[in-house]
């Protein structure tokens, strides 16, 4: 592994950025397109990680996977999370999927560690899972506790790849022990490990022995005690899906690092068919509460009404109060929700607690009832999620009635300043992409900062130095020949305040041809690939 060189792609400064700027045109000097002046995009995923094709695995029944589509050097790296060490703001750790065969949707988890504030990075595969027999490990989520220990909750799963690349999710076909998935906790402990780089063996938290039309886990998330109210406590959440009705409920457990034990996983929300509880977030507030947020989504592949709710625990997760007022919204169906692109939309909301004010901060998606058609909105709660402020739009409503935004990520700094970053399709595709000159296709990362009272701090600012095309070599969740593609369901973001100011720290995807250090042809693909990119953005 070792320390690696980095690629810096730095914009020339054209006019600069002012938080007091008047309304700006979409294109041209001084507008959104050049508001990235002075920002740097650093390719994080520059060092090769490798894995041989498991030709004898009982879940792999299509020989063309190993013969034609598997790359022993990971190619696409999409979907990520990012955390800042509270004991050292220069220590950053990210986690993302790394794909071996994007067309078969086969991947594992790769960690990225920086000890110099994101200037250089070390990386490697999350260890301990290679000998367990799973087809894949997934859904990156990382959290530090207040002592600087690092945790990630991992979903390991199996399915069968039949000829010719068909995904078979029927129950109980695969080893180990005919399990279809399991939840594991991985820990990197201060004083024992090189935190972020070496890890303790995985701890099995839960197993599910049927998928398809049975019960299965998904969408896990992790939080930890960062404020010192419950030292050693780590909070774990995931959804339990019922395949027959496609309804779901959210599950919760607490790991105690001192005793190295965990509470029996239990459901903390109820089945709400035809909607289902999904996408849990678990996190703590500065007052010592544990918060559990979730969404209520319509049936699979159907658009329509959705909502987001929060439950609170005042006894370190031993019990939760009834949910507060729901934040209502609308979401798109999975098919066609990102047209003219084909990627699935991803997680429709994001939530955190402001460490300075204790307020809950939520950014969420609205679809079909706004300008643009898909947009991002902000609400705040000063009473632990029982009620919410009037929603305000985060993305520039007057910029373009067509260009859509998606996958918001919210974060807050110790100073109380907070921000929301999101994927943004307002600029035309650059000349080095397959869709050069096209509108509402290529993606940038945009950020909007806010004051602690929720008032905007400046305007939407472009973070990326080059718009990127999500249709370049994307993974295919449905397997070989599928139509829906993937850029991740979310991306990573965090925030910190130092002597130099308040900064948003972002870890996101790009297929830019200028950010492909270390990329090599493999399987049935050649660069450019989806890469993980880091940017630090000062609050205005």
Describe this structure in words.
The protein has 540 residues and is mainly β. It is built from 1 helix and 33 strands. It has a 5-stranded antiparallel β-sheet, with no helix packed on it. A hairpin with a 4-residue loop joins strand 4 and strand 5 (106-114). The chain is globular, with a radius of gyration of 22 Å.
Q: What descriptors fit this protein?
A:
about 550 residues, five-stranded antiparallel sheet, about 40% strand
Mean pLDDT rating: 89
Q: Which structural category fits the helices and strands?
A: mainly beta
Strand adjacency order, main sheet? 1-2-33-32-31
SS summary, helix count? 1
- Overall geometry comes to globular
Give the N-terminus to C-terminus distance in angstroms. Answer: 36 Å
Helix content: under 10%
What is the number of strand segments? 33
Strand content: 35-45%
Strand count, sense and closure of the main sheet?
Answer: 5 strands, antiparallel
Q: Radius of gyration over alpha carbons?
A: 22 Å
Residue windows where pLDDT falls under 50 for at least 5 positions:
1-30
Concise synopsis of the structure shown:
This protein is mostly beta strands and 540 residues long.
Provide the fold topology.
Elements: E1 8-10, E2 40-43, H1 64-69, E3 80-84, E4 92-101, E5 106-114, E6 122-125, E7 136-138, E8 142-144, E9 150-157, E10 160-162, E11 166-168, E12 181-188, E13 203-208, E14 215-224, E15 233-242, E16 247-256, E17 261-262, E18 266-267, E19 276-284, E20 290-297, E21 304-313, E22 327-331, E23 349-353, E24 360-367, E25 374-381, E26 392-393, E27 405-412, E28 418-424, E29 444-450, E30 456-462, E31 492-498, E32 501-510, E33 531-538
Antiparallel strand pairs: 1-2, 2-33, 3-4, 4-5, 5-6, 7-9, 8-9, 9-12, 10-11, 12-13, 14-15, 15-16, 16-17, 16-18, 19-20, 20-21, 21-22, 23-24, 24-25, 25-26, 27-28, 28-29, 29-30, 31-32, 32-33
């Amino acid at each position: 592994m070792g320390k690696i060189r980095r690629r810096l792609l730095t914009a020339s400064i054209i006019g600069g950025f002012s938080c007091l700027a008047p309304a700006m045109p979409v294109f041209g000097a001084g507008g959104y397109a050049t508001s990235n002046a002075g920002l740097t995009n650093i390719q994080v995923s520059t060092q090769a990680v490798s894995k041989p094709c498991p030709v004898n695995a009982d879940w792999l029944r299509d020989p063309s996977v190993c013969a034609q589509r598997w790359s022993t050097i990971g190619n696409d790296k999409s979907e990520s999370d990012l955390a800042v060490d509270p004991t050292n703001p220069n220590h950053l750790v990210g986690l993302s999927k790394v794909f071996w065969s994007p067309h078969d949707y086969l991947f594992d988890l790769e960690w990225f560690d920086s000890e110099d504030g994101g200037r250089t990075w070390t990386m490697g595969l999350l260890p301990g899972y290679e000998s367990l027999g799973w087809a894949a490990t997934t859904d990156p989520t990382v959290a530090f506790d207040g002592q600087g220990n690092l945790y990630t909750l991992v979903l390991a799963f199996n399915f069968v790849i039949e000829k010719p690349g068909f995904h078979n999710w029927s129950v109980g076909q695969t080893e180990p022990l005919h399990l279809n998935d399991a939840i594991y906790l991985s820990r990197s402990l201060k004083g024992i490990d090189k935190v972020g780089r070496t890890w303790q063996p995985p701890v099995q938290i839960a197993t599910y022995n049927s998928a398809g039309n049975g019960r299965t886990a998904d969408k896990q998330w992790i939080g930890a005690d960062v404020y010192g109210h419950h030292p050693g406590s780590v909070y774990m959440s995931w959804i339990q899906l019922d395949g027959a009705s496609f309804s779901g409920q959210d599950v919760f457990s607490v790991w105690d690092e001192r005793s190295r034990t965990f509470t029996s996983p239990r459901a903390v929300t109820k089945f709400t068919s035809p909607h289902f509880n999904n996408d849990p977030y678990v996190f703590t507030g500065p007052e010592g509460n544990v918060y559990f947020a979730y969404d209520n989504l319509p049936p699979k592949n159907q658009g329509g009404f959705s909502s987001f709710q929060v439950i609170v625990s005042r006894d370190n997760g031993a019990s939760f109060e009834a949910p507060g007022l729901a934040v209502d919204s609308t979401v798109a169906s999975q098919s066609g929700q990102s047209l003219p692109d084909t990627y699935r939309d991803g997680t429709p909301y994001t939530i955190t607690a402001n460490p300075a004010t204790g307020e809950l901060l939520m950014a969420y998606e609205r679809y079909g009832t706004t300008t643009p058609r898909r947009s991002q909105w902000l609400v705040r709660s000063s009473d632990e999620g029982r009620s919410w402020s009037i929603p305000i739009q985060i993305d520039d409503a007057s910029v373009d009635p067509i260009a859509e935004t998606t996958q918001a990520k919210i974060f807050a700094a110790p100073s109380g300043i907070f921000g929301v970053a999101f994927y943004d399709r307002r600029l035309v595709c650059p000349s080095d992409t397959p869709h050069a000159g096209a509108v509402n296709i290529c993606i940038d990362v945009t950020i909007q900062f806010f004051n602690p009272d929720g008032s905007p701090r400046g305007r939407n600012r472009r973070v990326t130095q080059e718009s990127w095309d999500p249709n370049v070599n994307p993974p295919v969740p449905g397997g070989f020949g599928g139509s829906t593609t993937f850029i991740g369901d979310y991306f990573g973001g965090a925030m910190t305040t130092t002597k130099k100011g308040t900064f948003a720290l972002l870890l996101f995807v790009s297929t830019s041809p200028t950010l492909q250090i270390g990329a090599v042809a493999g399987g049935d693909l050649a660069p450019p690939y989806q890469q993980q990119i880091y940017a630090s953005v000062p609050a205005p």
